[in-house]
Design a protein that fits this description.
Structural class: alpha+beta
Distance between the termini: 16 Å
Strand content: 25-35%
Shape: globular
Number of strands: 15
Number of domains: 2
Strand order of the largest sheet: 7-8-9-13-15-14
Order of helices and strands: EEEEEEHHHEEEEEEHEEEHH
Largest sheet: 6 strands, mixed
C-alpha cells in the first residue's frame, strides 16, 4: 500500500494523507478505502484512522486472522519438488525420469523446506490449549522477503519465535582458547549460531509496530522441535535469545505477566494487521 501525500502535518512520525490504496486501521481494524484521509506510519508501513490517533479502539472490530503454520515453507517445498520433477522428466521422459527421481530421492535443500514446514506445524499443535494465548503463524514482513514463523502474545509479553525441526543434542559450546571465548550454539554437529543473529531483524520489526501503539515486552525465542536437551544444565539462552522446546515454551507462555486480556487483544489485532499471513 503506497500513500499519496497531501502535505498536512501529523503528530510524531505519522503523516496525514489520502490513501492511494485501501488498507486496514492498525488500531481498530476498520477498512480504509482508497482516497480517504488516514494517518500513515512509514516506519511500519501501516495506516490508521484519523480518529484513532489518540488511543486504541475496539480490539474486536474484526476477527484476528491467525494464519496457517508452515504454509509458506510447504508451498516452497512443493514448488521446488515440482520444478525438479518437470525438469528431469523433460530431459529423460516420463518413465526414465520417474525412475531416476525415485532412485536419487529429493535433494537435502528441498527436504529442508518440508521438514521446516512440519516443525512449524508441530509447534502450533503444541501451543493449542494455552489459556489466553494469541498465536499468529507464518507472517509476512512488509518491505522484506522474509517471514516470521510465529508471533505469540501472552501475559508475559510478545514472543517472536523461530521454529527449528533439527535433531541432535542442543548445546552451547565454547570453541575459543584460554583467553578468548567463542561460544557457539550447536545442535548435534550443526553450528546454529547464525539463527540467533537472524532473530534481530524479526524482533526489531515487531518492536517498531508496538512502539507506534504503546510498548510491550518483546522476547526472541528459538524453539527446537524434537531436539534433544542435556539432562544436566540445559542451555537457557544464547546471545540474548531464549532456547525452548515444545514443552518448556508452553510453560513459559502460561506464566503471569503485565499484559491483561484486553491489551493482548489490542496487540494481537495490530500485529495481525501489520504482519499479514503469508
Amino acid at each position: 500500500m503506497e500513500p499519496e501525500r497531501q502535505g498536512e502535518s501529523a503528530p510524531s512520525s505519522l503523516r496525514r494523507l489520502r490513501l492511494r490504496f485501501g488498507g486496514r486501521c492498525l488500531l481498530c481494524g476498520a477498512d480504509l478505502a482508497k482516497g480517504v484521509e488516514a494517518l500513515y506510519d512509514p516506519a511500519t508501513r501501516t495506516v490508521r484512522c484519523v480518529e484513532c490517533e489518540v488511543g486504541l479502539a475496539n480490539p474486536e472490530a474484526r476477527p484476528i486472522e491467525p494464519g496457517s503454520a508452515g504454509a509458506s515453507a510447504h508451498r516452497e517445498y512443493e514448488r521446488r519438488r515440482l520444478h525438479r520433477e518437470e525438469r528431469v522428466k523433460a530431459q529423460l521422459g516420463d518413465f526414465f525420469g520417474g525412475a531416476a527421481l525415485a532412485i536419487a530421492g529429493e535433494p537435502q535443500s528441498t527436504r529442508a523446506w518440508d521438514r521446516g514446514s512440519a516443525g512449524e506445524r508441530k509447534l502450533a499443535e503444541a501451543l493449542a490449549g494455552v489459556e489466553g494465548l494469541i498465536a499468529l503463524h507464518d507472517r509476512r514482513v512488509p518491505g522484506t522477503r522474509g517471514n516470521i514463523d510465529h508471533i505469540l502474545i501472552a501475559a508475559g509479553g510478545v514472543f517472536v519465535v523461530d521454529a527449528k525441526h533439527y535433531s541432535g543434542l542442543i548445546q552451547v559450546r565454547d570453541r575459543g582458547g584460554l583467553l578468548d571465548r567463542d561460544e557457539r550454539l550447536c545442535v548435534g554437529r550443526r553450528d546454529c549460531s547464525e539463527l540467533a543473529a537472524n532473530m534481530t531483524w524479526q524482533t526489531a520489526a515487531v518492536t517498531r509496530v508496538l512502539e507506534s501503539i504503546g510498548p510491550a515486552p518483546v522476547h526472541a525465542i528459538l524453539c527446537f522441535v524434537d531436539g534433544e536437551w542435556p539432562l544436566l544444565l540445559p542451555p537457557k539462552s544464547y546471545k540474548g535469545v531464549r532456547l525452548e522446546g515444545t514443552r518448556s515454551i508452553r510453560k513459559l507462555l502460561a506464566e503471569p505477566g503485565p499484559l491483561d486480556a484486553e491489551r493482548r487483544a489490542q496487540i494481537g489485532q495490530a500485529l495481525a494487521i501489520a504482519f499479514p499471513a503469508k
